[in-house]
Structures are given as C-alpha cells and as structure tokens.
Amino acid sequence: MGRAYQELGHLNRDMGDEEKAVVHYRQACELNPALLAAWNSLYEYFIKNNNKPAADHALEQINKLQSLPGVLLYVDQILNEGRLGLAETKCRSFLKKNPTHTYAMSLLAEIANRLGYFDDAEFLLEKAVEFKPDDGDLRMKYASILRKKQKFSKTMEQVNILCDKYPDNLTYQAQKASEVMQNGNHEEAITLLDDILSKNPYNFSTLTSKGHAQKTLGRTDQAIQSYQSAYQIKPDHGEAFFSLANLKTYSFTRNELDSMREQVGRVDLSLRDKAYFHFALAQGCEVNGEYDEAFFHLEKGNKIKNDQSQYSIERMEKELQAQIDVCDETFFTDLGSGGYNTKDPIFILGLPRSGSTLIEQILASHSMIDGTLELPNILSIAQSLRGDDIYGKLGNYPKSMKSLTLEQRETLGKGFIEDTKNAQERCPNVHR
Fold this sequence. Notes:
By secondary structure, the protein is mostly helical. It is built from 23 helices and no strands.
C-alpha cells in the first residue's frame, strides 16, 4: 500500500500538484518507512518550505536507509508491505553470509514478531545486543519484545542500561517513565517526567505522557493543563487534542475547534496526527450539536485507521470457521482427558472485542486472582502447531491438534505455566 501512495506522489508531482504529492508521500512513508524515494521528495519539500524539524527528520531517515546494504533495504520495504515469506527468505540468505549483522538480525526478529514467534524474536534481539551492546535503538527493540512477552523485570533492566549509558538521552529517559507507568507506578512516572521537563520544558510528548499519568490518578484538572501545554508548544500535536476529547468531560472552546480545523487541512500533517484531529473534532462537534460535521470527521478518521490496519475480516472469518469445524463435540470426546494438571490459570474464551478484558477486570478484583493482560503465549503455541506451514496457507492448524499425543499436550501445558510465571512480575498488587 505504501508503494502505491509513493507512485501517486510521483504522478501528482509530475502533473504539478505539489500539495497532493506531499499528502501521498506522507501516506507512503507512514505505511512503509523504508521508501527512500518518498523520503527524498518530502525532504526537498520541507527544505523549500523552511520546515526545519520535518526536514531534519526526513534527512535522518534518508541517511539511515542509504547506509543499508541494498538487499536489506529491499527486505525492509517488502516487510512493511506484509510480504513476510519473501522477506524472511532474503533476510536468512543474507544472514548466512553475514551472521553477525545486527540490523539483519533485527529485521528477522521483526518478521518472527509479526508471525507470533516471540521466542525467536527475543533470541535474535538478545544475540544482536550482545554483538552490538552500544546500539541504543537495538536495545530498545529488545526491550520492546521483552515487554510484549511480559518479562517486566528484564524490560526494566534493559531500559535502565540505556539510561545509565546515555544519561543525556531524553528519549530513553522517557521510555523508562513509560515502563514505570505501564507497571502501575504513576507517581514515580510523573517524577521521572518532571525531571525530563526540567531539562527540556518544551518537550510536548513528555507533557502528553504526564497528562496520561495524571488522568489515571484522577487529577483531571492537572491532566487538562498538561495536554493544553503540549499543544501550545506544538499546535499540530494531534494526540494532545485527542487526549482532551478522550476525557469525555472536556468541552473544546471555539478557538480550539477552529485551530483543529486548520491543522487537519494541512497537506504536510502526518496521518497519525490527522486521525487524532478528526476524532477530537468529531467529539467536539458532537457536544456542540454539529452532528453532520461530527460524522464527517468520524468517517475520515476511521478511513485513515482502516487504511493503516492489516486486519482482514476475510482472514479472521476463515480462522474462526476452521476452529468451529475442528473443535466440535466429537473432537473433545475423542481427545479425552490429559494435559498438565494445575488450577493456576483461568482462561477467558470468546470472540474478539466480546468483552474478555472486562471479565478479566471483574475476576481480578478478587483478592486471590491477578489479571495478566493478554499474554502472547497461547498465540506462540498455536504458531508452533502450524509446523512448516508458518504462514497458515496450508491450513495445518487447527487440524494439527487432532494428532497431539497425551505427552505432547502435557508438555505444552507445563510449558505455558512455566513461561507465564513472568507475568506475575508486572502486577503492582500481586502481593496485596
């Protein structure tokens, strides 16, 4: 999809419609950040229009992409297009000749991550960090996969290494605050964010994060002040406006609504910010009774999100129907008893978006039950049952479950219990 937008950018540029070209180049780079030609065109536009921050960002991306071997640039591009099979083949071939190339390892880890092979992704990034321990971006990727696997102590360990190695890097400091916040310690997170703001009071993203922490603690007035300070520093920071709308109790002023309308009409605004503005305007217009405009912005915001999403209704329907066809009453009767005998886990089953998270919160209010969020382990087990059919094209899973032996089922169950012990590290109230 990104490459198609890049071509639209080229066509509009050649026809003399620079503004439409920039819109499409923006879309191309957000959908596929490895499109060098689109970044070059954006850089030229930003330089021409004296937009130094945007030009600097574009140049940073250009330099990064130009430094890559050609085959890895290609892998990066097709990976972002969702062509995981070809990307994996090319990446593995490169790594056979260059087994310690850390960027190639990180690309293969991302492929594994997208396929649900989180153990493989963790292993690759762990080794890559060992080969190149001073690469901060690499360590950040490693921390990210550790968090995804809910290895919270190890995640904090990596973030602390980054902060100790690069004490002046506010991005790493902000990441530490984010980790602390996600682990439930919002007071400590605010302290860390205030320290960043003392060094850079114009850090709009930090102000927004501070607002999130304040909102969670019920300090709505302080959160509003933080969000407003963020957009006053950067008027096109859509997340700040969206966060105000998301409070559900905030009413935008006429000046704020007009400002958002002005921003959402900009051709050089990122799709991410544009979506935020559309959703914030939808809420603001609804409160004022301007329903036609509210629906207009909802439609625009949803279209942006839909274009960026890799979700496929057809694929989901196919997967669910396969589970219905295989996992019938006869299947469970023939399977009989077995597995790893323990009462530890409580599984909440249901279709996507059917309220499973709410059920988890209700159950976790019990003093002897702790919620673990959505663990990736079951997905990893399902992926392992695909065998060689790692892309799900042959339909081996869920049919492969029929052939599981008693020993295999016990091994899978025991492995799940052992692996998910890490989830207990997260819960701030696990020892209540």
